[in-house]
Amino acid sequence: xxxNLIKGxxxxxxxxxxxxxxxxxxxxxxxxxxxxxxxxxxxLVTKIGSLIFMIFLARMLMPELFGLYSLALSTILIFxxxxxxxxxxxLIRFVSKKFGKNKNPKSYVVYLAKLKLFxxxxxxxxxxxxxxxxxxxxxxxxxxxxxxxGLLFILFVAxxxxxxAILIASNNFKGIFYREIVFQIIRLTIIPLxxxxxxxxxxxxxxxxxxIILFLSFSYLISSIFLLFFSKNKLKYLTExxxxxxxxxxxxxxxxxxxxxxxVVTAAFFxxxxxxxxxxxxxxxxxxxYRVALIFALTLIPLITFSTVLxxxxxxxxxxxxxxxxxxxxxxxxxxxxxxxxxxxLLSPFIIxxxxxxxxxxxxxxxxxxxxxxxxxxxxxxxxxxFTAKGKPIIIAKLLIISVIINVILNFLAxxxxxxxxxxxxxxxxxxxxxxxxxxxxxxxxxxKRRIK
Length: 453
What we know:
Layout: H1 2-22, H2 27-84, H3 87-100, H4 106-139, H5 144-169, H6 174-201, H7 205-230, H8 247-281, H9 284-300, H10 307-314, H11 319-356, H12 364-370, H13 373-389, H14 393-418, H15 423-452
Helix pairs in contact: 2-4, 2-5, 2-6, 2-8, 2-9, 2-10, 3-4, 3-5, 3-8, 4-5, 4-8, 5-7, 6-7, 8-14, 8-15, 9-11, 9-12, 9-15, 10-13, 11-12, 11-13, 13-15, 14-15
């Protein structure tokens, strides 16, 4: 049995390389390979650029200020999740289905765009009302102005995300790749110059964080405008006159989007509940130690994750074709995940000391903890694409809610039991809580997949 699996995996890999060399991208398999190449290239640019950007910020801002920046950005990203509420996933599923039937999906795009705009402004309103309470009463840290700058961040990220979802739905990943290059160039040019200028002008830490978030927001806007012009030929169908979306179609969209929305919001808390709790109980520099390790691990994950490519493909497949595509994706991703996790675990001291500097030495063992995430997070993303394509996002939502509850309970226990032993002990405890809850979520997905089958 094991030998047959190994032979089958080797055959799959050889077939992939053969298609790439011959530029044979025919059929669903060819489309997955082509889009995977673009997504891999995009992820490579994203992660290299993000890593360089984070290294620069970590080294220039030092642990205390970098911890405040990480806390502010994590908080803003929760509001970004509220502005989405599953709209990109819903758009990809329904628009890709329309394309699969050679029909114009403009009515879906317009309807979802209106919802997106409404949710974006509601999220911005909630943030501006709560920013002072969050910064001064809950965190008790000087990030108020950074949260105010987050208003534009929410708006411009919403625009970028919606435009990318439209292009993903039409299996157009080329423009997204070039847009990412533009974004990284802008970000890596403007913000370092801003920090150097601010340091010379002796700006306060709070003003410096404000300007970093503000210029980061404009980086999203400029690169998204580039993407819009680059891909305008692919969006011509949006200029055609089409009838309004019907009541029945709206009902189907809303029915699908409701559990997806619950999933997105819950996933946002799942991803940032650790920062929210650390921000309340530990000093900023310990937030930085935690965040540096987590960011590095998460930076590597998209290099072996192809869920963005798989969702529009899975949406078109049914029954045995879907199962075969799912199994191939899992087998390849699992092999890459194990290799990458071992690499990070063994080289954690080298990674932290050389890349971030000795000021972040406390992050070494935290990164070793987070190497375990490299095994299961990529696999979980494939399961999520599978359930979404099957029209069962409610399964993801339920498991995420349970996992978040487990995570919160474990975080409280870690903080309550370890706070007397120092801030670093609390950070270790929260890291352990994050890993345990993530593994619970992964095993839950596996069990639910077997039940459906």
